[in-house]
Design brief:
The protein has 363 residues and is an alpha+beta fold. It has 8 helices and 17 strands. The strands form 2 sheets. Strands 1, 2, 3, 4, 5, 6, 7, 8 and 17 form a 9-stranded mixed beta sheet that branches. The protein binds 2-OXO-4-methylpentanoic acid.
Length: 363
């Protein structure tokens, strides 16, 4: 039976003035809407108690399994306001299905696609006013569904009680510098994920394990770290929160193939499709870090960019590593292909281009 998210409206919502102030400069991940959606799963009763209620602190026992064993998965997608005022999401079924795959890997219960979609619709419906107006640049309402082991129990086994929630956060550009290329650090000491591990799941532990590499990068004047395969430290994987693409001199758009240690980004998959519309040949294969270092020097790699729901398409500039640096090919605002793909994606998401792929769902 599918879930109905009952509305328990917050009695003291944010004032119109304060919300307008926030939406004028939302930043990323710092402001939250008035409500959230929640459902509970228990081993005996399955999913139940679905509701939309006031955004606020959650109550957990200190022994809640998630706090000890990180049995948790999450998603990220956005709600976009179109020129006619309607609100749309981009390929939300892909997020629902990825959350089901992540849940299987983390021994959490699966939430049916229709229930996932119902939770987004119910939340965006009540917090409509928080979706930034059309034509305000890259602003949207970022939706963060997540699921965690809320059972109070210290034994190591799949939790018998799990909580699912969605929160929403008005969002501008993920990187403060906007389209300014990001500089990357090659993380040679720290891997993000290993074979047979949880690298393909969207789970907090992968992001936690990327932080030491990112900190090392920041210490070396970089914005983000690029992670390599943990077995040979040879092949490019991803940035931790973003996938990577390379534009080659022979018109290919190359991205690391999915090996089970890389997150299968919805933006990544969409770009592989959009590339064909732009006359590029998409290619998923293993890419050695040496190919990047050499390719930007000998001209066989023309452009590099990172992509993700939050970051959209972000030009990548210089690459640094212990004792070396490869130059940027990104200029001030990224190369031509990077900018074209970014524009094609944003035009689709904001309803400025025809949705020929059938990727938009009205919320
Ligand atoms: C997203 O792009 O939605 C993510 O979850 C990645 C994170 C860096 C914000």
């Amino acid at each position: 039976m599918s879930l109905t998210f009952d509305l328990q409206r917050r009695p003291d919502p944010t004032s119109d003035e304060r919300r307008t102030e926030i939406l004028a400069d939302p930043g990323f991940g710092v402001h939250f809407t008035d409500h959230m959606a929640t459902a509970t799963w228990t081993r005996d009763a399955g999913w139940h108690d679905a509701r939309v209620h006031a955004y606020g602190p959650v109550s957990l026992m200190p022994s809640a399994a998630v706090l000890h064993y990180a049995q948790e998965v999450f998603e990220g997608l956005k709600a976009y306001r179109h020129e006619d005022g309607s609100v749309w999401s981009f390929r939300p079924e892909a997020n629902a299905e990825r959350m089901q795959r992540s849940a299987r890997r983390l021994a959490l219960p699966e939430l049916a696609t229709e229930d996932f979609l119902a939770s987004l619709e119910a939340l965006v419906q009540v917090d409509q006013a928080w979706v930034p107006a059309a034509g305000t640049g890259e602003t949207s309402l970022y939706l963060r569904p997540f699921m965690y082991a809320s059972e109070a129990f210290l034994g190591v086994r799949p939790a018998a009680e799990v909580t699912y929630s969605v929160i929403a956060s008005p969002a501008g550009a993920y990187f403060a510098g906007g389209l300014q290329p990001v500089t990357l650090w090659v993380s040679e000491h720290y891997a993000r994920a290993g074979a047979g591990g949880t690298g393909a799941a969207k789970t907090g532990g992968n992001y936690a394990s990327s932080l030491a590499g990112q900190l090392e990068g920041i210490e070396h004047g970089c914005d983000q770290a690029v992670f390599l395969d943990s077995a040979t430290h040879t092949y490019i994987e991803e940035l931790g929160g973003m996938n990577l693409f390379f534009v080659t001199d022979d018109g290919r758009l190359v991205t690391p193939e999915l090996t089970g240690t890389i997150l299968e980004g919805v933006t990544r998959g969409s770009i592989l499709e959009l590339a064909k519309d732009l006359g590029l040949t998409p290619q998923e294969r293993r890419i050695e870090i040496a190919e990047w270092k050499d390719g930007v020097r000998d001209g066989s790699i023309r452009e590099v960019f990172a992509c993700g729901t939050a970051a959209v398409v972000t030009p990548v500039g210089a690459l640094r590593w212990e004792g070396g640096e490869a130059p940027s090919t990104a200029g001030e605002q990224g190369g031509e292909v990077t900018r074209s793909l970014r524009a094609a994606l944003l035009d689709l998401q904001y309803g400025r281009a025809e949705d020929t792929h059938g990727w938009l769902t009205r919320l």
